[in-house]
Task: inverse folding
């Protein structure tokens, strides 16, 4: 049975999802520092791609980007943080999610 038919039979729809790298900071100085560390760890080319396609910025900027994705129908986000143990960044992003709803 093909996927389209299966979805019709089960009355389900395909979820829209996106995978994004996240670099979040409270200030321009904080962001510049995190971008510099990221560039040293992964290389300037990867940083450039994330600047182009990822979520980089202060909380208000990221909240607006998340709202754009939600308006486009994205319902699932797969996020990769520069430092997943940075509790401060995770807390900032939690605030972003609350304000983007």
Result:
């Amino acid at each position: 049975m093909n996927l389209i038919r299966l979805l019709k039979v089960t009355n389900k729809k395909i979820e829209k999802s996106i995978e994004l790298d996240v670099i979040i900071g409270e200030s321009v100085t904080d962001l510049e520092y995190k971008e510099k560390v990221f560039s040293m760890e992964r290389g300037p080319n990867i940083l450039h791609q994330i600047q182009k396609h990822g979520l980089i910025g202060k909380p208000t900027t990221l909240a607006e980007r998340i709202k754009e994705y939600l308006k486009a129908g994205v319902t699932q986000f797969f996020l990769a943080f520069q430092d997943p143990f940075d509790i401060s960044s995770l807390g900032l992003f939690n605030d972003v999610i609350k304000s983007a709803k």
In short: The longest strand covers residues 16-24. Residues 23-100 form one domain. The chain has one domain: 23-100. Residues 28-42 form the longest helix (15 residues).
